[in-house]
Amino acid sequence: MSELSILIVTWNSRATIRDCLNSIQNTCQKLDYEVLVWDNVSTDETVRIIQTEFPDVQLFRSQKNLGFAEGNNRLIEKTNSDYILFLNPDTVIIDNSVIKMLEYLKSSSSVAALGPKLLYSDSTFQLSYAKFPNLGSEFFTKIYQRSVNQRRSLVLTFLENTSAEAKEVDWVSGACMLTRKKVLQEAGKFDENFFLYFEDTDLCHRMKAKGKIIYFPEAQVMHVVGSSTKSQNLKTEYHYRRSQLYYYRLHNSRFSNLILKLYLSFRFGLGCIFSNKEKKEWYKDIFGLIWS
């Protein structure tokens, strides 16, 4: 039985998986850990890299793309550890961050899950926690996120100053999230109705009933955001909106859900009018999704 199970779901992750797995090997040597990877039908060299360069990794290959939530759930079933770390394949662990996270969680029985400080590839701050999404909090979170992406110094300074110490938050990013297996057994695993996006927020919503969710900046992880979805912009947007609408149905009021639908209808309605033929078909799909 291992002390820690590190779970990674891959999909065409050739560009990042080597660095990710190397960082685990280089920083977790003092831990008794196992690495389990669920590959969602990659068509690049992801599987070959894992099989040939990392023979100790337990690799499981899907017959179809199950998405992030279901892929992780399949891996959870195969673990035999008390602690579970969900990790994206486009991350690199810095120094002994996983060890610090594990020590903190072990010493804090009231904590259900925690996430580290995430950094972009240029080592700048990345927003990786927020309040639970609603009409108000999403508005401000997206303003902060856009400002961080554009490297606006005043907003970055404000966020870094308010994120300098460990604190309780509503949710942390699933790109790197540590929890107890017992918490998952009590709160439930990922909701498989989420294919991509919002699944970590929904899980934190349920885990928060079992204990605190902590943002823990003493641990740092580099995260190359969206490395495997950059070429899938329309599909990515579709999955984002699908998950957003489902999350609102689960956790927010009918009024909030209606306002979101009206806003999305207005936004994508304009796009349908002024877009080319290919995008018009996509916008029709979005409209069907909004009012289904």
Roughly how many Å is the radius of gyration? 19 Å
Assembly form of the protein: single chain
The CATH superfamily label of the largest domain reads Spore Coat Polysaccharide Biosynthesis Protein SpsA, Chain A
CATH topology of the largest domain: Spore Coat Polysaccharide Biosynthesis Protein SpsA, Chain A
> What is the chain-wise order of helices and strands?
EHEHEHEEHEEEHHEEEHHEHHH
Q: What fraction of the residues are assigned to beta strands by DSSP?
A: 15-25%
CATH class of the largest domain: Alpha Beta
Return residue spans where pLDDT drops below 50 for at least 5 consecutive residues: none
Average pLDDT metric: 92
Helix and strand content put the structural class at alpha/beta
Report on the architecture of this protein.
With 292 residues, the protein is of the alpha/beta class. It folds into two domains: 4-223, Spore Coat Polysaccharide Biosynthesis Protein SpsA, Chain A (Alpha-Beta Complex), CATH 3.90.550.10; 233-290, no CATH class. Helices cover 47% and strands 21% of the residues. Strands 1, 2, 3, 4, 5, 6, 7, 9, 11 and 12 form a ten-stranded mixed beta sheet that branches. Strands 8-10 form a two-stranded antiparallel sheet. Strand 1, helix 1 and strand 2 (33-39) form a beta-alpha-beta unit. Helix 1 (14-27) runs parallel beside helix 2 (46-53). The longest helix is centred in the C-terminal third of the chain and has 21 residues, at 254-274. The mean pLDDT is 92.
